[in-house]
Every structure is written in structure tokens, then in C-alpha cells.
Design brief:
With 441 residues, the chain is mostly helical. It has 15 helices and no strands. It binds protoporphyrin IX containing FE. The site of protoporphyrin IX containing FE (HEM) has 22 residues, from helix 1, helix 2, helix 13 and helix 15.
Length: 441
């Protein structure tokens, strides 16, 4: 019998997503009513709960999908089912420990890893266990690796390194020198994002090649060019996070150019794939197909935004405003989450080919998710733009007046945040059903 670990990972990921969105919606309500639950759980506490949960969603869903593709779709035997079980158990217990750490204010960590730093140890051990299973399986079974195997392998290796790097601040050698500390901190955060992107973008190429039942998309020259571009971005693309530091301007420009090119290449791969997919192939995987198309749309919208604020004169105004938040959520929801939902639908179909995912209400959930995300994103952009205008251009009004003028945008941010939440609950319903059927004793 096949291991149920991939399904456990995916259920765990969905739980992290919905908990994370619940924290996000509650935090966004505190924009409107700062006193709401302030004594019990202030914004400063809710934010790490939200950010850590939703990032865990991306990483856990990517991990579960890769385990699934290897063992269920490709039908390889796990090198060690025990290590996979241990990996899951470690992540589950660490997840609970992270919540306790936030709840009881052990938050000495840094951005994205605000929990008590010792918890990075079991996380690293989990990645090592994943790496052992992954490389042992592939080494034995596959000769000419399609690009997604390279991407997943690279993602796992770099994830181990960058998780350690994000904790170098523990050592005085880094912490006591501001520039060194800041550079390493932001470099590691940027490369951490690059590492999960390797896993997620690899999944998008895997899905395209499986839906089309044609391995060309994963072995073409453009696919490998995309891989090397992604790798360069992972290693050097962090430089745009360090605008404030006295580095050479060309380093930032090169870094930005690479990250933009990476998106453009992924968008063009999806676009060309879409043009070549046959009707029957679309009909076999309707929701997985739709989610990949929406990834393409969101890449396009995020490129426009990122191209604009990569111009240093504009970056100066947008830095630290809601425009940065729009960029982070626009990409993590619009690009990563859509690819992962495409994977979840593909997996649900593999588990139960008779499962009807193309129902009217699931389609409606999909459309309302995209429309809500668009308005959610625009609300953040306007709120960020207005605040920046007040800070740098018209300084006549009081801070409280400026804050009041943002209220309509905070309201729409909150309402469309709830709409995203509800849409994803609707969309995830058939997926949950397929997964729960599978793990039923
Ligand atoms: C798949 C779902 C989501 C993902 C992946 C996601 C991701 C993120 C990320 C990465 C950040 C950090 C932003 C930064 O530091 O620049 C963030 C912040 C935030 N998110 Fe989300 N988010 C999601 C859904 C939501 C929803 C539904 C809401 C509800 C309104 C929400 C509300 C917030 C708030 C209030 C912040 C804090 C912004 C600040 O610091 O002022 N998020 N989210």
C-alpha cells in the first residue's frame, strides 16, 4: 500500500492556509479598529501568526505535492517510508511549537522566522530527511532528469542552506556589525523565497507536462534556461531587498533584471503551453488548467507592479508602505497559491478520477477568488500610494487625517480578504473530500 504521508502533508498545508487566512482577516480588521482584541492579541502578534502560517502553506503544499508526484504519479517507491513519516511528524510538532512560541511571546526571531530560534533545528532535520528520500529515489530510478527534478532538488538543497543563513544573526560576528547583519538577513530572506519558488515553479512545469502528456515542456532548452535563470535569481536576486545599504547600484539592477526575466520566461512557457493544450486535455483537468491560466494573469500584473517599483526613484516612495505588502501578497497568493491549487486539483483527480471538480459552484469560487484578489490588491496599492503621497509630497495634513482618508481602502481590503477566504473554502471543498476519502481507515 502507498504511503499516506503525501496526503497528510497536503491536509496539513490546507489547515495552515485557512488558519493563516483567519489570522490575516483578523489582523486586517485591526487596521479599522486598532482596539479590537488589542489586549488579547495585538497586531504585532497576529502578523507573525498570519505570515508564518501562509508561508508554511506554500512550503508544506509544495512538499506534499512532490512526495505525491514521486510516489503516486511516477510510482517510485520511497527510499524510506519511515524517514517520510518522521519528516511529517517533526513538521507537525514544530508547527504546534511555533504557535506556542508566538502565543507565549518567545518571538526573538527575525522576519518570517519570528519564533524562538531553536525551532529551526527540527525544521532543518526535516529538510534533510526529505533530501535523503528525494535524492535516493531519483538517483536509483532516473537518468536524464527533466527540469522539474533539477528544480526540486535545487530547492531542497538551497532551502537547507538558507534556513541556516537566516539564523547567522545568532553569532556575534554577524549581529554586531549592522551592515553585515542587515545584508545577510535580507539576502537569506530573498534566497529563502527563491528556494520555495524553485519547488513551486518546478511543480508548475511538472503539471504542464502531465496535463499535456508530453515531456517536451520539461526538457526543452527554454525550460532549462528558465531553471538557470531561477538559480541565478535564487543566488543573486536578493540584492533588491538591500536598497538601503551602501552597495553598488549595478548589483541591484542586475538582480532586478534577473527576477523580472524569470517571471517573463515562466509566463511565456505557460502561455505557449496553453496554446498547445488540446480540448480533451483541458477537460480532463479543468480546474488544474484554470488555475495555471490565472497564474499567468497574476504574473503579468505583478510584473507591471514590480517593474514600476524597481525604479529606485519610485522604490524610495513605496518602500515600507502597503505597496510592498501588495507585492508580497500579490505574488504569494496570485502566483504561488494558484500553482499549488492547480497541483491540488491534479492530485485530487488522480486519487479519484470520478470526482466532479468542474461543478458550477467550484467554478464560481475560482472566479470570485480572482476578482476578490484583484480588488484586495488594488486596495493595498491605493492605500500605499496615498500614505506615500502624504509622507513625501503633501505634508500639510495631520497624520490622523491621512489615516482617516485610508479607511475606505482598509474596508475594501478587509471585505475582499473575507471574499478570498470564502472563495478558497468553496474551491477547496472537493479537494478536502478526495483527501479525506483517501485517508479513511
Ligand atoms: C493565500 C493567502 C495569503 C497569503 C499567501 C498571504 C501572504 C502574506 C505575506 C507574505 C505577508 C507579509 C507581507 C510583507 O511583509 O510585505 C502578508 C501580510 C499580511 N496579510 Fe496576507 N496573505 C494571504 C491572505 C491574506 C488574507 C485573506 C488577508 C485578509 C485581509 C491577509 C491580510 C494580511 C495582513 C493584514 C498582513 C500584514 C500587513 C502589514 O504588515 O501591514 N492576508 N500576507
Amino acid at each position: 500500500m502507498k504511503s499516506k504521508v503525501p496526503i497528510y502533508f497536503l491536509l496539513f498545508a490546507l489547515t495552515a492556509l485557512f488558519l493563516g487566512m483567519f489570522f490575516g482577516v483578523t489582523a486586517s480588521f485591526q487596521y479599522l479598529l486598532p482596539e479590537f482584541l488589542k489586549d488579547q492579541i495585538p497586531f504585532s502578534k497576529l502578523r507573525p501568526f498570519h505570515v508564518t502560517s501562509v508561508i508554511s502553506w506554500i512550503i508544506l503544499c509544495a512538499t506534499g505535492s512532490i512526495y505525491f508526484f514521486l510516489t503516486y504519479t511516477e510510482k517510485f517507491k520511497l527510499f524510506s517510508p519511515l524517514l517520510a513519516k518522521l519528516h511529517f511528524t517533526l513538521f507537525l510538532l514544530t508547527g504546534a511549537a511555533i504557535y506556542f512560541s508566538f502565543l507565549f511571546d518567545y518571538t526573538e526571531g527575525r522576519e518570517y522566522f519570528a519564533f524562538t530560534p531553536v525551532l529551526i533545528v527540527p525544521i532543518l532535520v526535516g529538510w534533510l530527511l526529505f533530501g535523503v528520500n528525494y535524492f535516493k529515489i531519483l538517483y536509483k530510478n532516473i537518468k536524464n532528469w527533466p527540469v522539474y527534478y533539477w528544480m526540486w532538488g535545487t530547492g531542497i538543497v538551497f532551502m537547507c542552506y538558507h534556513l541556516m543563513e537566516a539564523h547567522f544573526w545568532i553569532f556575534d560576528f554577524f549581529r554586531l556589525n549592522f551592515i553585515k547583519d542587515f545584508t545577510v538577513q535580507w539576502k537569506s530572506t530573498g534566497s529563502f523565497t527563491g528556494s520555495w519558488n524553485m519547488l513551486v515553479y518546478g511543480i508548475s512545469i511538472y503539471l504542464m507536462s502531465k496535463i499535456k502528456k508530453n515531456s517536451k515542456v520539461a526538457s526543452s532548452k527554454i525550460a532549462f534556461f528558465f531553471y538557470f535563470l531561477g538559480l541565478t535569481n535564487l543566488m543573486f536576486g536578493w540584492a533588491h531587498h538591500t536598497y538601503l545599504l551602501p552597495t553598488q547600484p549595478w548589483i541591484r539592477f542586475v538582480a532586478y533584471a534577473i527576477s523580472m526575466t524569470e517571471w517573463i520566461v515562466l509566463a511565456s512557457i505557460i502561455y505557449n503551453w496553453k496554446r498547445s493544450v488540446l480540448r480533451i486535455e483541458k477537460e480532463n483537468h479543468p480546474m488544474a488548467y484554470r488555475f495555471l491560466l490565472s497564474t499567468d494573469l497574476w504574473i503579468f500584473l505583478n510584473i507591471i507592479l514590480a517593474l514600476l517599483f524597481s525604479i529606485p526613484a519610485i522604490n524610495f516612495f513605496t518602500h515600507g508602505t502597503h505597496i510592498t505588502v501588495a507585492h508580497s501578497m500579490g505574488t504569494t497568493i496570485g502566483i504561488n497559491t494558484t500553482i499549488l491549487f492547480s497541483a491540488l486539483f491534479f492530485i485530487a483527480h488522480q486519487l479519484n478520477p470520478k470526482l466532479k471538480t468542474d461543478r458550477k459552484w467550484v467554478k464560481r469560487g475560482f472566479f470570485s477568488f480572482n476578482i476578490s484578489l484583484l480588488f484586495f490588491w488594488i486596495s493595498l496599492l491605493i492605500a500605499g500610494g496615498k500614505r506615500s503621497y502624504w509622507m513625501y509630497v503633501s505634508k500639510e495634513r495631520l497624520f490622523s487625517e491621512m489615516q482617516d482618508s485610508l479607511i475606505p481602502y482598509y474596508i475594501s481590503f478587509f471585505i475582499f480578504g473575507i471574499a478570498i477566504f470564502i472563495s478558497l473554502v468553496i474551491v477547496a471543498f472537493p479537494i478536502f473530500k478526495a483527501f479525506l476519502q483517501k485517508i479513511k481507515p
